[in-house]
Structure formats: structure tokens, C-alpha cells
Amino acid sequence: MAKPRIAVIIGSTRKARFADKPAAWLMDKVKDHPELDFELVDLRDYDLPFFDEAASNAYVPSQDPRAVRWQQKVAEFDGYLFVLAEYNHGMPASVKNAFDQDYVGWNRKPVGALAYGSMGGARSLEHLRQVAVELQMVPLRNAVHIGGSEFFKVWSGGQNAPMSEIEGVLQGSLKSMLEELVWWTKATKAAREA
């Protein structure tokens, strides 16, 4: 039986983003996961317009082929982890727009994050969780947060150290998040297939 599939979505589309560094670290940590398969999905690769459909795809099929392509990608997965920046106490507009471009594909699937910023991306993650609830998703309680001195140690605007220098601080939260992701992915997948 195929393992459930999880998208690791890079949420920032900025040229100067930090996201690539923690995304590479996360993908390395999950590459041989015994219960889940992970795929890196970069929002930069989808050229999504700002949401401009007649209504949510829960009610009316989307017309823009870029939105339809994104919906097809979202539907491939059983759960999601966002590599999530915090911009002005919230999630990047690119993430909110990616959520808005689909409704059906997100339903009844778990979502978590590796969040980063001076406060560990905590406010951004709370914003994401609020939107996820409206999309009938299951926001995970556990998350990985890169904040404070750890963020400034690995961020390119700080010391630009390798992620290995802070991974000891992140390992416990990563383990907890992945255990929770496995449980919710199996539970929601079984319920959707029942």
C-alpha cells in the first residue's frame, strides 16, 4: 500500500526569501520517513494570480487555468507542511492566496508548519490555523519554530550559519510534529476513503 503523501509547501515567493534553507533541512529530515512520502512544492512554480474567480471552487469551477493547475496539485496530497515566513504579524499574501485558490482540495486534511521569524513565525502560524479551520482542515498543534537567537544565527541577514548549528533545538518539536502529522494523516485519509 502506498504511503500517504505530504506536500512541503514553500510559502514565500520573494527573491530574497530565507525559506529555501529551512526547506532543504526539513526535506533532508523527512526523506526516509517510514510512514509518509514528502514532496517539496514551491509556490514560485505556480504563478497564481490574485483570487478573481466568480466564487469558491466549492460552488463554481475555477476558470483560470493557473488556479485549476494549482487545485490539481493540492488534490494530490493527504496533508501539508508549510515552510512559513511571518510578514507583519501574519502569513505571506502568497500563502493566503494559495489557500483562496482552492477549497475542495484542502478539506479534511492536516496542515502544519515549520515557521520562522524573530518570534518564530508564531503569529503567522496562528493566522494560517484560522484560515485552515475555515477550509475544514485539521491544524496540527505541534510545529517547528525558528525564532530569536536561532533565527538570527541561520538567517542570511544574521550569521548565516548552517541549519545543523541549531538543529538540536529543533529536533524535539520536529519529532512531535511528525508524530502528530502521521496520526492525523492516517485518520483523515481513512475517513475520506470510507
From TrEMBL:
<protein>
    <submittedName>
        <fullName>NAD(P)H-dependent FMN reductase</fullName>
    </submittedName>
</protein>
<dbReference type="GO" id="GO:0016491">
    <property type="term" value="F:oxidoreductase activity"/>
</dbReference>
<dbReference type="InterPro" id="IPR029039">
    <property type="entry name" value="Flavoprotein-like_sf"/>
</dbReference>
<dbReference type="InterPro" id="IPR050712">
    <property type="entry name" value="NAD(P)H-dep_reductase"/>
</dbReference>
<feature type="domain" description="NADPH-dependent FMN reductase-like">
    <location>
        <begin position="4"/>
        <end position="147"/>
    </location>
</feature>
<dbReference type="GO" id="GO:0010181">
    <property type="term" value="F:FMN binding"/>
</dbReference>
<dbReference type="Pfam" id="PF03358">
    <property type="entry name" value="FMN_red"/>
</dbReference>
<dbReference type="InterPro" id="IPR005025">
    <property type="entry name" value="FMN_Rdtase-like_dom"/>
</dbReference>
<dbReference type="GO" id="GO:0005829">
    <property type="term" value="C:cytosol"/>
</dbReference>
